[in-house]
Amino acid sequence: QQPVQSPQAVILREGEDAVINCSSSKALYSVHWYRQKHGEAPVFLMILLKGGEQKGHEKISASFNEKKQQSSLYLTASQLSYSGTYFCGTEVYPGTYKYIFGTGTRLKVLA
Amino acid sequence: DTGVSQDPRHKITKRGQNVTFRCDPISEHNRLYWYRQTLGQGPEFLTYFQNEAQLEKSRLLSDRFSAERPKGSFSTLEIQRTEQGDSAMYLCASSLGERDKYEQYFGPGTRLTVT
Known about the structure:
The complex is a heterodimer.
Chain A: E1 4-6, E2 9-13, E3 18-23, E4 30-36, E5 43-49, E6 55-57, E7 60-65, E8 70-75, E9 84-91, E10 99-101, E11 105-110
Parallel strand pairs in A: 2-11
Antiparallel strand pairs in A: 1-3, 3-8, 4-5, 4-9, 6-7, 7-8, 9-10, 9-11
Chain B: E1 5-7, E2 10-13, E3 19-24, E4 31-37, E5 44-50, E6 53-57, E7 65-68, E8 75-79, E9 88-95, E10 105-106, E11 110-114
Parallel strand pairs in B: 2-11
Antiparallel strand pairs in B: 1-3, 3-8, 4-5, 4-9, 5-6, 7-8, 9-10, 9-11
């Protein structure tokens, strides 16, 4: 079943923060986060593995709550370049490398 | 440019025709994935390969779809007797097999329009 992301869409001003959530009805073994700009392919942001630590990349970080079957992506001090659609991808079974992508969150950062 | 290339970038075909897409992954990547994406939706898994072996195929894929990866290098995705519902962006992605290195690198996609 497809993970559900929230919010579906968000509009920010430059410098504001945002949180995007990814919730699954099934156990999560790993979570990938990708950003896709209009007309382009998805671009990898980070991986979170079961039992792993919270990841961080510049002003973008993420957490993985195995018990809640949920992952969250944190965007700090957003920049115009953060605009796009964010997808989480969850591994169906451990070690299968088969992923189901979430419903997506459209994020727009305004100057 | 992620290093994954796809050809063609756009394909317009008439219903009932066969089409074939090609994907060239990053050379050292042993895993290759095909996804389908429609407007506003996330990529939908179709199939994936480890080297030349096709390990899994989505149940959503009808018998009209077939994929190959001869010699574990490039891959082709063929759609036979295309239908209007096949219109979508077809994405290819590749990755390494090691657990901590398996982020997927996506190609630019092939946009298929069936008229």
